[in-house]
Design brief:
Layout (H helix, E strand, L loop, with lengths): L1 E7 L7 E5 L14 H17 L18 H4 L2 H6 L4 E18 L7 E18 L14 E2 L3 E3 L1
Antiparallel strand pairs: 1-2, 1-3, 3-4, 4-5, 4-6
Length: 151
């Protein structure tokens, strides 16, 4: 189960922003406040894992979501403040791989949940833009930055 999803400089999110998930999480807010961007970022990672060729770090356009070119998904304030040629966005998530119920010694009908394992992943995608023209597969070119996987 997801516990946390984070984005960095993705669409309407400037800097790093993190969202905690519960068993039931509703995304709601005023228009253009980022609800759709959260869903698009999750779909973007799934689409990249499932459909992106190895030579491309991210699949911006595919069967799950069509996001255009890299400059369309990078936060516009981050674009304006970045004076070098490299631009980046970041994603991260934290999930629990298993739970178990433990009964209380005082009350055998009262259970608590014990977390067995948590996985934390944070990474960035750095793009050295040579133009925004989409390539044959409409995917950005670049490299995946160093990330942390903890288990």
């Amino acid at each position: 189960m997801f516990f946390r999803w984070s984005v960095k400089d993705f669409k309407s999110f400037r800097g790093a922003e993190s969202l905690r998930f519960a068993p039931l999480t509703l995304l709601c807010g005023p228009n253009s406040s980022g609800e759709s961007s959260i869903v698009q970022s999750i779909l973007l990672i799934k689409q990249t894992i499932l459909y992106s060729p190895i030579a491309r770090p991210i699949a911006l356009n595919g069967p799950l979501v069509r996001l255009g070119v890299f400059s369309d998904i990078e936060n516009f304030e981050a674009q304006a403040s970045n004076t070098n040629e490299e631009h980046s966005i970041g994603f991260g998530w934290e999930l629990s791989t298993a739970h178990r119920l433990i009964s209380s010694d005082d009350d055998p009908m009262h259970f608590r949940t014990a977390e067995l394992s948590t996985i934390l992943v944070d990474f960035s995608i750095d793009i050295a833009r040579e133009g925004d023209a989409p390539g044959p597969s409409d995917a950005a070119t670049g490299r995946i930055g160093a990330g942390d996987v903890q288990g």
